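[job 4471] stage=fold_predict status=RUNNING
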Amino acid sequence: MTAVLEISDLAIDIRSRRSTVRPVDGISLDIAAGRTLGLVGESGCGKSTTGLAVLGLLPSGGQVVAGSIKIAGQDIVGLKEAEAREVRGRSVGVVFQDPMTALNPTQRIGAQVAEPLLIHGMAKRQTARRRAEEMLARVGLPRPAQQLDRYPHELSGGMRQRVMIATALICEPKLLVADEPTTALDVTTQDQILRLFSELQRDMNMSVLLITHDMGVVAGHTDEVAVMYAGRLAELAPTGPLFANYRHRYTEALLTSIPTLETRRGERLATIQGLPPNLSKPLRACRFAPRCGFAEADCFALDPSWRGTGRHHFGCHHPAKPAGGTATAASIGAAS
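[job 4471] inference complete, writing structure tokens
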């Protein structure tokens, strides 16, 4: 299948007055048309920075220092802002974590949803407003005609997130970057939003980069999973095989630390001890070794090589045995 998103050996530096941090250090991944890749890991692992790079929205001091990012075959690294703006909205849409801060509180809903069409010259004002109403209906917002003239603060959190999705998809982009799209929502609304993503993706044959810290979210709503730790990919595999046959010890630790249907009431949950490494300093060994219960001498001396077969790859000196996983995507997703 043709890849809509191709990331090759991507490295990103963020410079400040005191130091230079490398939150993304040589990652490669791709997403085919109509597929969803879950990018998962703890806070600070570099997953959101990766998403911002795909959008050409790195923060001040941020710069791609190596590698490429191709969307539908076009390398967007190094594009001028005007050129990047042509890609955003038209070829790639984005849904951020908190719709209340992502939406303009002084602008009516209809104007915000229609704006991408006007910016990209895809419709005139009246047509854009009609298309905005149609898209609000498509994402399941009740009484869409009435919502056009309301402000974000007049809507619930779930309704605001539907407005964000409508805005991201109004130009029918090839790729959607969803950065923690359900974190600010209650559990019931989370499920509704994730089901909506799946329906829209199927209808539009759209690729999705789903960024999350929640293994339960990726279990039920992705085709492949990339586990990220300290700026590097720890493991990359189709969703089912990752949960059933995880190999990297960090993946194992993440799965062990979340409840499943078999978890008993009152049972103490497992945790990952310690903190991620300081990414402003050179790292020449396994980045997870200081927190890993299976680490040996070579883990503290050598950077593990990237190995595996087919679509399942990992970088670990002492991986879990194949078929050693007790979790399944179904059990994790149902418990979340």
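[job 4471] summary: The chain has a mean pLDDT of 91.
[job 4471] exit 0
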